[in-house]
Amino acid sequence: MAGLINNVGARAAADPELAAAELRTTDGYQRTKFAIFNLVLEQLEALGITAETASRPMIRDGIEQAITRFAAKEGLALNAAERSLLATEVQNEVVGLGPLEPLLKDPTIDDVIVNGPFRIYIERAGQLSAVPLRFRDTAHLMNIIQRIVSPIGRRVDEATPYVDARLPDGSRVNVVIPPIAIDGPMVSIRKFRVQAMGGQDYVRLGSMSQEMLSFLAAAVRSRLNILICGGTGSGKTTLLNMLSSYIEEKERLITIEDAAELQLRQSHVVRLETRPPNLDGSREVTARDLVRNALRMRPDRIILGEVRGAEAVEMLQAMSTGHDGSMATMHANTSRDAFGRLEMLLGFGGLTGDPKTLRRYIANSVQIMVQVNRMANGKRRVTSVSELTGLEGDSYSLNQLLTFVEQPPQSGLGEFRVHSARPFYAHRLVGAPDLRAAMGGAP
Q: b/e string for 348-368 if b means 16 or more Cβ within 10 A?
């Protein structure tokens, strides 16, 4: 073990980052790290304290002492860089989430994906790449998973082999473990943005045009009901969060999510979160339950993180019975695909009957459809803003207002275009009698 660590350390002067990356992935380094980790826990236990109650300086001092003791016992000649790396990673094991900790602290990383104990990937700027980090073994990874789900009252085991959870900072976590995950525990983390994106950030990054931003801001202020559609990871929730910033401070808002992610800036916000069933299948609280209850809580607007089931019935009811300006997201590849999904979800909710009646119900509830997509180059863009103006016969009538036209195909490049000079809902747009007026400047 000493030879292995010192061999890597000898190259540190030439390329410290490469040396550290190689060192982290060796079995010898993992054995050393966890031997020191166990020494630290023994020291804390001898003092009658736990990692949760000990101060960070006390833990760091204990780690330094444990490294010195272990190195002397094993005859390890550790340089300063190796000692610092060991101390940081052992501290992450004691009070953090182990190998995930530096990735969660990196503001440039959007997603962290763990495929078993030995493969960790990140998404940065829309592109996936592997990182030179690993867990010691499956037991180590499962210990970190339990550290994630336990504080919020969730559980994951053979009886419940998958779970949605969130980290203290709001990052969304999905966990799948054997027996349904064949190659070991799988963890997917959608990181929470410390600084929420503003409208001008979208324009600056090319995610939408200034015209789109101006119109959507006017639509939110004018209390039009908005449905945001897109695929997984396309940025639906981030866009919903940004648009909510244009809601007036005086309004009472109720948000409903499976895992709380929204960062609404208003002061009068009630945040509700679903709850999975316990072992005997009872005590589940669904999104439909929460929407029903929210209607009794005197909301001005209801914001549904994602509509994916029977709650579609209550969501549309809220939009059409006095809760104007409500918003939701939905998985759909196009705005028209979203209508088909909504009809299907209404059926799940027990609202069946003549298709035209269902379509009229939808058309009377939703006014603005916003489509977001993740392009081939990893960039997320608003690709369409349209109005649902009613029915033409048995078909939905869509008024296309603004689009992003990709040229050439699958390049992620293209231009934003205006398709209609006057919105159907122009009479409801506050301070914007037509689309060009709504586009008159930054909101």
A: ebebeeeeeebbebbbebbbb
Supply the mean pLDDT for the chain.
86
431 exposed, middle or buried (CB, 10 Å; 0-12, 13-18, 19+)? exposed
* Coil, strand or helix at 116: coil
Q: Once rounded to an integer, what is the mean pLDDT over residues 427-441? A: 62
Residues forming CATH 3.40.50.300 domain(s) in the chain: 199-438
Structure tokens at 26: 């060796």
pLDDT of residue 359: 93
3-state secondary structure of 134: coil
> Measured between alpha carbons, how far is 163 from 74 in angstroms, rounded to an integer?
41
Q: How far apart are CA 44 and CA 347, in angstroms?
A: 57
Question: Could you report the per-residue pLDDT of 377-400, keeping only the tens digit for each?
Answer: 888 999 999 999 999 988 999 999
Pick the CATH number of 97-192 from 3.90.550.10, 3.30.450.370, 3.40.50.720, 3.50.50.60: 3.30.450.370
Q: How far apart are CA 184 and CA 198, in angstroms?
A: 39
Residue 256 has pLDDT above 90, yes or no: yes
74-83, 230-239, 286-295: segment of lowest average pLDDT: 74-83
291: which 2 tokens? 């929407």
Amino acid letter, 151: P
d(CA 199, CA 221): 14
pLDDT for residue 7 is more than 60: no
How far apart are the C-alpha atoms of 378 and 185, rounded to whole Å?
26
How confident is the model over 277-306, as a mean pLDDT? 89
- Which residue type is seen at 43? Q
In the chain, list all ranges with CATH 3.30.450.370: 97-192
d(CA 97, CA 91): 10
Q: Which of 39, 31, 82, 81 is nearest to 59 (CA)?
A: 39
pLDDT band at 19 (very low <50, low <70, confident <90, very high): low
Residue 240 buriedness (CB in 10 A; 0-12 / 13-18 / 19+): buried
Which region holds residue 126: left if phi is over 0, alpha if psi is between -120 and 50, else beta? left
pLDDT digit string, tens, across residues 199-230: 999 999 999 999 999 999 999 999 999 999 99
Domain 199-438 has CATH 3.40.50.300: yes
The SS3 call for residue 204 is: helix
Separation of first and last alpha carbons in the chain? 62
Report CA-CA distances (Å) from 428 to 219, 222, 224, 367, 386.
8, 6, 8, 11, 15
Closest CA to 165 of 97, 96, 255, 259: 259
